[in-house]
Every structure is written in structure tokens, then in C-alpha cells.
Amino acid sequence: MVDLVDQHVVSIQAFRAETLLQLFRLAAKFESNPDRYCRHNTPLTGKILINAFYEPSTRTRLSFDSAWHRLGGDSINITDRSTTGIAKGESLEDVAHMFNNYGDCVVLRDSNPEAVYAMSSTLRIPIINAGNGIDEHPTQAMADLYTMFKWRPSLASKEVSPKDRIRIGVIGLPSRMRTVRSLLRILSKFPQILEEVVVIHAPEMESEAPLFDPGQLEELEASGMSIRCSSDLAAEIPDLDVVYINAIAWVGDSYEVHGGGFRLTRDLPFKPEAIVLHPLARGPELSTCLDDTPHNWYFSQARGAVFVRMALLTCMVNRAERVMDVI
Amino acid sequence: MVDLVDQHVVSIQAFRAETLLQLFRLAAKFESNPDRYCRHNTPLTGKILINAFYEPSTRTRLSFDSAWHRLGGDSINITDRSTTGIAKGESLEDVAHMFNNYGDCVVLRDSNPEAVYAMSSTLRIPIINAGNGIDEHPTQAMADLYTMFKWRPSLASKEVSPKDRIRIGVIGLPSRMRTVRSLLRILSKFPQILEEVVVIHAPEMESEAPLFDPGQLEELEASGMSIRCSSDLAAEIPDLDVVYINAIAWVGDSYEVHGGGFRLTRDLPFKPEAIVLHPLARGPELSTCLDDTPHNWYFSQARGAVFVRMALLTCMVNRAERVMDVI
Amino acid sequence: MVDLVDQHVVSIQAFRAETLLQLFRLAAKFESNPDRYCRHNTPLTGKILINAFYEPSTRTRLSFDSAWHRLGGDSINITDRSTTGIAKGESLEDVAHMFNNYGDCVVLRDSNPEAVYAMSSTLRIPIINAGNGIDEHPTQAMADLYTMFKWRPSLASKEVSPKDRIRIGVIGLPSRMRTVRSLLRILSKFPQILEEVVVIHAPEMESEAPLFDPGQLEELEASGMSIRCSSDLAAEIPDLDVVYINAIAWVGDSYEVHGGGFRLTRDLPFKPEAIVLHPLARGPELSTCLDDTPHNWYFSQARGAVFVRMALLTCMVNRAERVMDVI
């Protein structure tokens, strides 16, 4: 995991499959021994995280802040762009110089998709993209895939037999939702686990906006991913092993709701062992009646996200050796 | 104090008198040895507090945050509802699921009185109601009573002789002020210390709003409390041992000012040993000319509130054993 | 440095030159051994800093928060006056009483210049003025002078030979800019290092506003400082050893831009060894083309500010003995 030391986490593209698997193993160790790192062995003691969340968020911000604190680190929070140097007209490069002096790692959520790229060239400390407009949300995708491996550990093997491969239904808009964009990209690094990916969209959207950005679909297919589109959720559901749904796309300082027609409820014809994933926060598209069913892996997904972030942050600030002997 | 482990602190109603007395003993230990827990013995190391303050507050938020940090814990803060999942339409139950993943304890202040109840059923970590609209503010009442016992330790005895019982004047509106509602409730658990409680209200308010909610007065009297109303502060003051005053009621996203006619100043005919309590922040109703008099126990009340919260938080997250041998 | 224990840092006026030099020595130790205090020796463990930033700031707030955390302390943040007791009409003295209960040190930035003075008389814990309207910004001036001594260590000697004295150009408005006011005051404590101070202002400003407040210039000259004004930057630059520039004055809840006519770029006729200082955030007045030149000491200035604050905070809360043996 030396790969990850001081590595910026801006896009999923930069990550090798092997590195991700090692990350997930470390996350799993954290998840099975949550207390061991909080009381006695705090690898991030003395390290400072700068949480720069210029776009509304509680879930992601708390997830990172909790992960960092569990490991003994301290954090500094900026949650309002109007109080920052940026309001005074300061350049992103100057903000990056400032962050270099104050912390060891930055987590940035900004509706301006370019900000994380502009800052990462000047930063001498690593930065994590916690969601930049419609572009990416790499750590969310890591949490999503981690959850799939937790559910079906055989998928993490070097060789996955054809009968173990999964069909994933993605109810969302790849061109507008950063969670979906990152998810498809991370899946493309593990084509051997996939039978097929089915992007399911509301019928009316075919005329409203393209499902994929130019080149997005081609890039995914070039990895060996078999990807198909459909607007008939009822027809697809009986064959889906994983049903991933998201309805919100964050665009600029506002958001769009897509896929308003779809609603996952317990009476849909799920495969008995199918799991449902949602990055949360959820709206009506994911009914609470599913919460008490075995299909509910979205709570596990949220829980695992903290441990994935703990693993990632530990490696990025080069403190992995402090946890290795405890694992 | 095993009672308190993982216990939600939503209303004072749930607390037994014996538990409260043990809590106050622990608070008193913290108050007499403030440094012992900060440098060497930090029982909340590795624990995370989620401060969710959706209603304006500095005093209460800082009080909890300070208490938690003094004991070695870390905290995550949410101070603006518009940045949370709630702004995205997320249910309180889902917010509770989220908090379960990120912290060990929640402190909530919300102008919506139902929020703390809605969340406490889903939360698997304990929650403290830090003020919910006009309903309750249980830890403030604990601090108020703790201060009275500090002033008159004989009141904490199993048996209080009639000559030691106190007459408490409460200048406020029981139906609208959460601090008063909780205070009267906590007093009702110790009827043996009370000669009488006199609720003092401005004359004009008799026509504006009922002093008590339906059933509120009856519930208090059923505990053995002798409670009387008056609108003549000047006539009551010479007989009051404790003068409690508050003028602000937080209602929805705004506040009302009550009892504008009353003003405590040093030239009122106080009993020589009478003490004045106020939950603060104060306005003109409590004159600064009282600050330098022996009647001023409101500063001690604010100071003690931190230690009461330290004691409560330590017990709630089951770390009392870490301080017991130091006491 | 016993001088500094519990000392309020409101104005530079209160500081003796010898105390400042000792402070800078401690800061230099922190700067040359940044890791030593973060991992093993955390002098501020158990101490709580109250960051009260009622005026927009990221740079200064993060600088203090980072300094405090690096030394093992915890902090509580107030960044919005509308959520504090002040919004409820609470007096500054009552806010100070509140702070006495919750922390060990206060850092205050308030557009109301009187607030820090009003609070410091009631506070029993030390307060640092992090910028109060147009009045002062003492720790910024400490950072500025620390940087000059870092660049030219001979200036810190007891005796400075005439050939080593420096000419400082200050491009700014002494009557309106708190950074300039504090800088000139701290320089006046070291008149032996100065050949001359040249205050450089845009020509049009001579009619708009007085450069100095009544008595300000006289106070500086009384210290032995030789101070001159000029509006011809091009003519002055070839003789300046230090070029200090600032364009923003924070007034009330807004700011003014001064000296819009001046712009420092690399093609100006600087002395070869001249250094440029700017408290940052910068605007067009300091061109990025200077960043890669040897004149750029403004990044070092920002970096050093954290260590100066670490040194100051450590001394103020009387934990200097915890670092002394490590130095």
C-alpha cells in the first residue's frame, strides 16, 4: 500500500485493482476490531485533517471526520465558502499553499468540479475529492465495492468462476451523478466479477439528457465491462444480484432529481439473495419497507464507508505501519 | 450509576432521585479535582460526541463540548440544518442511522420538539436532549439542582428536617419555558427538600396564556410538591430561599420574552442567605448589580453545569469505572 | 517568558523586546523540529482553545487552530455571531464569564474593535486579539518580525551595526489597516534594526484619508524610528530591503481596498536580496510571478506564523516547561 502514501484521491481512475483490494483488507480489519484502534493504538495522533466542505453535506463530512478521529487525529473544519479567503478573491493555488501550512491531509467537497484539480497541483499534502459537482466521488465508490466484496467474498478472488459473476443494476444517470460515474469506473477495474451492468433509467429521460457523456461508455466497455441500458425496471429486477439506486445529482449549488418514476419496495420481484445499495441520503426512491429485509445492505454500506475511509486515510498519511502489527 | 449507561436523556421524568444524587456526587468530584481528569486520566479517549445544534446556542453547545473534551473525547459538530441530510429531505430515522455509524453519543438541540423522540427510537447510541422547543432541557435542570445542593448540602440528606426545607420562587412560565418545565419536574423528585414552590408571573400574563399546560400542575402536585402562583414579586421575595428567574422561551425558530415587568436588583428585600439562579443568557431581568453580592449563585450554576455534564456523559458512555478509582 | 503566562495579547504595545526575542527563539525551535511536539511531547494536552471568529477568516482561524492542535490541545469554535448569546442580547462581560467556564484561552476576531478590550477585563483566561476592526492584529506582526529575523539573523543581536540596518517599505495605510498598525508598533520596539521606514501610499489617497491617526506617527517617532512617507513606489523600491504590502482594510462588517494603483511584479527594480512580505490573502497587488523568485518570503511568513502562534500559546497557558527540556 506504499502506492497510497501521499497520493491524491481525486478520481478512481488512478487506482490499481490490487491496491484497492489491499485497502479493503485493511478496512475489514478495522471493521472487525473497531475498538483496538481507538483506545490503544492511534495511528493518526498528531495529524491534522482539513475538512473543506463548501457544498452541503453532513453524511460525507461526518464520515471522514469520524474516521479521522477514531484513529486519534484532529481536524479543522471549513463549511462556508463565504468565510474563506476565496470570498476575498484568493486563488485556489493560494488556498492550497495555506493548507500546506496547517494540516496533513485535505478533504474537499466543492460544487466547482475544477477546484480539486486546481488545488492538487499546488498542494504538498494529499487531497481527497469528497464530491466535485457532477464529476466524481471516489471514496463513495470504494465503499460501494467494499460492501459488495463483504457480501460476496468470492468476488475478491483472483479468479472468479462464471457462475459467481454478478449482474448489477444501476438505477441512475451516469452523465450527471458523480456516485454513479465513480462506481462504474471502479467496477471497470474488476471486469472479472461482472456478468453484466445494466443502467436503468426512467423512460422520459432518454429525450431529456444523454445517459452517458461522450466517451464515458466507450471507456467502460474498453475495460471488458459488458454494459447495457434499459428503462424497464420490473423486467430487469428478477435477474439482478445487486441493485444500486441513486436519485440525486448535485449540479452547481443546487441539485437535480432523476429517476423519479422508480421506487424500490419489498414487493418487487428481487432475486432472494439480491442486495440493494444506495449512497444515501435517500428519498422516496428507496422505501423504508426494505429496511427490515435481507436485501438491505445500504446500512452496511454506510457503516463500511467509515472503515474504508479509515484505511485510506491511514495509508495516505503514511501511518499504515502503526496498524500493521495490530492487524 | 449503571442506570445511566446508554440511557437516553430526553426528559427528566426518567430519572430516579437516587441516580441523580450519585450523578451529583461524581460531578462534585470532577469540580473539586478539575485537573486530575484532563492530564492523566481521560476516560473518554477514543469516544466521539455528535453535537447537533440546529437552534441558536453557544452556551449549551460549548458547555457540552468543553465537558467532553476535558475528558479526552473528540467531537463532530453540526450547527446548520441546511447543510444536513435533513435539508435533502432525509428522515430523522435515517439521520439516526447515520449517527449510529459516526459517534458514541449525540447531543441534540432542535426547535422541533418531536425530533429527539423520533431519533431516540432508532439510535443505538445515547442521545441527550439539549433543549427541544418548549418541551424540556433536562441537563439544565440537573445543573440547577446540583447548584442548590452545593449551596445547601443538607438538602441532599435522606431526611430533611422541616426547618431546612426551602421555598423556591420560580419567575417564569411553566407552560412555555423548557428550563422551567424541567426544573419543576426535577424538584418533584425531591419533595422532601421543599417547603413550597411559588411560580411568579407578570400580572398581564394571566390573560395571555395559561401558566401551566393541561395536567402539568396536577402531575407536580401528585409528587407531594406544594406549588402556588403569585404575581407579586415584592411580596414573595422576603420569604424565598432560592429565586430562579428566566425570561426567554424558545418557540419554533424564534423566541418569546416573558415576565418583562420583573427585574431582580440588589435592593430588593432578599433573605440574607437567598440565592439567585438563572440559566443564562440573561437580559435586563437580572441586573449586573447582583453579580458582586452573595446572592449571585448563577455564575456557580454555569460553572457547575460543565461538571454535571462531565459526570453524565462519562456514565452514559460507560466509562465511569475509569474515573472511580481516581475519585 | 514568565511574562507571557496568562497575559492577554490585545495590542503589541504591551510586549517588551526581550520577551518577543525569547518567543521567536521558541518558535524557531518548533519550526526546526515540527515532529517532536506532535508525536511525543504534547504540551497542550487537556487544554481547550475557544476560537471566536465573528468576522470572516479562514487563514488566521486555521493558523491558530493548527498551532493549538499540533501541541495536543482541543478547540471549540464559534464562527457565527448570530448563534451566540450575543444574538440574544447578552453582554460581552457575560460572554467572558461563559468562556471562563469552558476553555483555557480565547482567540477573538471581531469587527467591533472594543469587544476584545471589554472582554479582557472580565476574562480570567488569556485572550488573543486575532484582529479587531481597524485596530490591531498583534500575532500577525509577531509573525512578520519573526520572518525578518529568520531572513537576517544579525538583526536579532543586541547591537546592530549601522551597515546591517534595514530600510523597510510599507505599502499600506497605517490609519486603516490593523496589520500595518501592529507592524509599525512592533518595529518601534526594535529601532536599532531600522535605517528607515517608508510608508508608501497611492497618490490619490492623500486627499481621501489621513495616512496616520492623530498621535500615531508621533508615537512611532518617539521610539527612535525614522519614518517617512512617499507615493513613488518606483523611486523607493531600489533602496528597500523589505517590501511589505497589504491592500485590504477590514472595517466593520466589510472591507476597503487601498493602494489599488500598486502592483508588485518581478520586473520592478528590487534590491537583489530584498524580500517581499504580505499577510495574505493577496489580491492583484502581489503578482504570482514573484512566487518563484528569491524575493518571495511571504510563503515563509505564513508558514512561520503557525510556529510563532505555537510558541505564544504554549507560554500563555503556562506549559512552556513541558517543551523546554525538549528544545
Automatic annotation (TrEMBL), chains A, B, C:
GO terms for biological process: 'de novo' UMP biosynthetic process; amino acid metabolic process. It holds the Pfam family OTCace_N. Residues 166-315 form the Aspartate/ornithine carbamoyltransferase Asp/Orn-binding domain. One of its GO terms (cellular component) is cytosol. GO terms for molecular function: amino acid binding; aspartate carbamoyltransferase activity. Residues 7-148 form the Aspartate/ornithine carbamoyltransferase carbamoyl-P binding domain. The keyword Protein transport does not apply. Its EC number is 2.1.3.2. InterPro entries: Asp/Orn_carbamoyltranf_P-bd, Asp/Orn_carbamoylTrfase, Asp/Orn_carbamoylTrfase_sf, Asp_carbamoyltransf_Asp/Orn-bd. Keywords: Transferase. Belongs to the aspartate/ornithine carbamoyltransferase superfamily. PANTHER family: ASPARTATE CARBAMOYLTRANSFERASE, ORNITHINE CARBAMOYLTRANSFERASE, MITOCHONDRIAL. This is Aspartate carbamoyltransferase. It comes from Parasynechococcus marenigrum (strain WH8102). The gene is pyrB.
